[in-house]
Design a protein that fits this description.
Layout: H1 3-27, E1 38-47, E2 52-61, E3 64-70, E4 75-78, H2 84-91, H3 94-120, E5 127-134, E6 141-151, E7 157-162, E8 165-167, E9 171-173, E10 177-178, E11 184-191, E12 199-205, E13 213-218, H4 223-260
Antiparallel strand pairs: 1-2, 2-3, 3-4, 5-6, 6-11, 7-8, 7-12, 9-11, 10-11, 12-13
Length: 270
């Protein structure tokens, strides 16, 4: 396929649009504007795994679409009254209609084969991070954030589980954001009273993953509480050691004293 040829055809069509628009202004006795913008968009729509293709070529005048070609119909269709003269003119031009009808095969299907591996088959696994979010002046934790980043394609499912049971009513999500490199990111927040002993899981389903990716989070003990708990454990262990050592010494001393006792035989003194 000659892409330069298609580009030249689009330029020619754009020039024809300009001439048609200007001629329409004259026909309707309107002043020709000093400044105007004519825009052409060529679109390929794929479905059913690329087997079904629809080619659209859309024309805009000052940001308003007024006529377009649809390969499923095979003709130009006017979007506004302003576009009817253009649609009628081009539909009566056999060369233009034949060229547009061929673009579905030469432009859309060809490019699908070229970019299939790069775009359609491409898969990038997401990175998942779970962290608490402090709210209120007391700094109490009432929200958990699941940050999912760097995945492609953009279709993804993120959900929160508490002890393996899905949470639905208390989950909010940001809109899907583009990173600029075709990958996306999203933030899903669980708003709830975090309970010690519960396990919170962010579960991500994506086409790049063979199975759902799960990241667990549990409410950790504060640093001061951990220090107190550690001090108590150390004290208990040391106390137990001292008790055991003292008991061993006592038993040894008691055993030695019993060995030193010699029974007196009164019969030997006579």
């Amino acid at each position: 396929m000659d892409l330069q040829l298609i580009h030249r055809c689009q330029i020619c069509c754009a020039l024809m649009v300009i001439l048609t628009v200007l001629r329409t202004d004259v026909t309707y006795c309107r002043d020709i504007p000093k400044d105007f913008v004519v825009e052409v968009k060529s679109e390929c729509h794929y479905s059913n795994g690329g087997r079904d293709v629809r080619f659209l070529e859309r024309y805009f005048y000052n940001m308003e679409e007024f006529v377009y070609f649809d390969s499923q119909v095979g003709w130009y269709i006017a979007k506004t009254e302003f576009g009817k003269p253009t649609a009628d003119s081009w539909n009566n031009n056999t060369a233009i209609i034949e060229q547009e009808r061929n673009l579905e095969e030469r432009f859309c299907r060809y490019n699908y084969g070229v970019f299939d591996a790069l775009i359609v088959q491409r898969r990038v696994k997401p990175d998942v991070t779970v962290s608490p979010m402090k709210t209120g002046s007391s700094g109490e934790q009432h929200r958990l954030a699941c940050y999912v980043n760097g995945f492609y394609p953009s279709a993804i499912k993120v959900k929160w589980l508490r002890n393996q049971v899905e949470e639905t009513s208390s989950v909010v999500s940001t809109e899907l954001l583009q990173n600029g490199d075709w990958t996306s990111q999203i933030l899903v927040i669980l708003e709830t009273e975090l309970q010690r002993g519960d396990t919170y899981t962010c579960e991500v389903e994506h086409s790049s993953l063979k199975e759902p990716l799960k990241v667990d989070w549990e409410l950790q003990t504060s640093k001061s509480a951990k220090n107190k708990q550690l001090t108590g454990i150390v004290g208990f262990v040391l106390g137990a050691v001292f008790i055991i050592v003292g008991l061993i010494i006592f038993l040894k001393n008691n055993k030695g004293a019993s060995r030193l006792q010699i029974p007196v035989n009164e019969g030997l003194l006579n």
